[in-house]
Amino acid sequence: MILGVDGRVLAVIAVVLVIGAAVQGLVGLGLNLVSAPVVTILDPSLMPEVPLLLATVLPLMTLVRSHAEIDWGGLGWVLSARLPGTAAGVWMLAVFSDKHLGITVAVMVLLAVALTVHAVEVPVRPATLTVAGFLSGVAGTATSIGGPPVALLYQHRSPDQIRSTLAILFTVGAGMSLAGIWVAGHFEIRLLVLALLLIPCLAVGTWVGGRLHGVVPDPVIRYAVLVVCGASAVALLVRSLVG
Question: What is the 3-state secondary structure (H, E, C) of 40-104?
Fold first, then answer.
């Protein structure tokens, strides 16, 4: 056991984090879409704190390479609305059981996959940014998956703007969520230590993602990620409903 987590479970989580970090390095999001269902299945006690802690670190690696096209105006609306969304997410954490949390994570991932497959186009304006920010706060705090509502708005922008804008959102937004969880008294120090031990997985994944730029066709990566995320979410949903 390492900090209360079985060594084999930790090894699987490490591999999943490498994959998720590589995906996020390519398309701008994916770390928690890939990892959250697996973490919830293997050890629900790590949710959502460990994924959120890691979500504050990985975007900093992205910003080192790409930060020129950040949409600061849009982020102002998103982050302002994320504050009340964070409060709602903290309330959900206090009310939901592990079973309910598992169902919520699974539904969030499946919804994100469905919206991505159908390429729903939503205009980027203050009203939609505000709604996306609030939903990002709720989902990001309760499930660690706060990227899809905002990514949906920016999907037709340049890849650099998507990656850099979402990187700021993930770092600041995850920080808000963690602060809310800490104020509510749900935060455990062992989870911080565990997240620190897993940071090298993010570095490896970021390196892999960088090596794949221009090598693997974007459509192949996109659909492979959707299949992995969808399969993980379905497995989590079935487990939560039956268990």
Answer: HHHCHHHCCHHHHHHHHHHHHHHHHHCCCCCCHHHHHHHHHHHHHHHHHHHHHHHHCCHHHHHHH
